[in-house]
Amino acid sequence: MIGELAGLFSFPFVQRMLIAGLLASVVGGVLGTYVVINRVVVMSGGIAHITFGGIGLAYLLQDKLDWGWMDPMLGAIVFALASGAVFSSDFVQNRVRQDSTVGLLWVMGMAAGMLFMNFVDKTRITVQDPASILFGNILLIEPLHLYVLAGLTVGIIAIVIIFFRDLKILTFDEEFARVSGLNVGRLNLLLFSLIALTVVILIKVVGVILVIAMLTIPPTIANLFCKKLSTTAAVSAIIGVVTTFIGISSSLVFDTPPGPMIVLWMGGVFVPSFLIGRKFA
Q1: Is 72 inside a domain boundary?
Q2: Residue 96: what are its φ and ψ, rounded to 5°?
Q3: What DSSP letter does each residue of 121-152 carry, written as one string?
Q4: Cβ count near 23 (within 10 Å)
Q5: Burial zone of 253 (CB within 10 Å; 0-12 exposed, 13-18 middle, 19+ buried)
Q6: In the prediction, which pLDDT does 93 show?
Q7: How many angstroms separate the CA atoms of 235 and 253, rounded?
Q8: CATH of the domain at 41
Q9: Other CB atoms closer than 10 Å to residue 1's CB: what's the count?
Q10: Burial class of residue 17 (count of CB atoms within 10 Å of its CB; 0-12, 13-18, 19+)
Q11: Gap between the Cα atoms of 15 and 255, Å rounded
């Protein structure tokens, strides 16, 4: 079986799948730590579903305006950043129920995406199966997408390192951040923008539906054993990398979709970790 698996990893499309999965695991583990500690899991899920509208709009613009450069991934980035800006705004933070805003934009993004795709002439434009968008199809990763994912991953991690101190203060004590003279509004916008970009990366790996799993399971496991933010983020990324590698390998061996297999492996690691973490807490 090991020899067969090694043979499969010699194919370029499998190598791209593995690299994309590992990149997503690293950035998902790091930003997922902020998502879990800040308790914005639902908002992150909302951003993931809203991007479906951007993907559909990109296909529609390709068809109706002949914008061949409008890649669905670009449409997802635009919608993700826009929704992140809305969720981080003072209006939503202070004057509107956040769960109501998330629910409203969540369903509108999904509905808009389906409507946009319905208007696309499928004889002119090749439209990705909505099921593969929702549940992921990492086998479809192209070299250009891989370069974009790598660039986004490096950029996100670099920004987190540069603003680590400020984001740490914001995460644990927003009021102290205000007293310290930090621009909380801009920091919230930065954080949600990073989360939005991370969501786009994860969508390429596990799809819209399973994004929450990659953002929450590894950080939750790491948080059972780690106290420092930096350590939690590092351990979370390692857990993500290991489980993603095992999940992709398992999917190749058993001929199953990679996305769900990755998530199930993460969930399988969480159960014993939870029991051990409670015992030694």
Answers
A1: yes
A2: -125, 145
A3: -TTTS-PPPHHHHHH--GGG--HHHHHHHHHH
A4: 24
A5: middle
A6: 63
A7: 27
A8: 1.10.3470.10
A9: 7
A10: buried
A11: 16
Q: Which amino acid is at 247?
A: G
Question: pTM for this one?
Answer: 0.89
pLDDT in tens, 132-142: 787 777 777 88
Split into its structural domains, the chain has a count of 1
Residue 258 domain-assigned (yes or no): yes
Query: In the chain, which residue ranges form alpha helices assigned H by DSSP?
Result: 2-8, 12-37, 41-64, 72-88, 90-94, 98-118, 130-135, 143-162, 164-172, 174-179, 184-225, 229-254, 258-280
- Domain of 54? 2-138+164-280
Q: Is residue 236 part of a domain?
A: yes
CA torsion sign for 204, 34, 195, 208 is positive
Average pLDDT over residues 240-264: 90
| Average pLDDT value over all residues in the chain | 87
**Position 156 in a domain:** no
Count CB-CB contacts under 10 A for residue 67.
Answer: 13
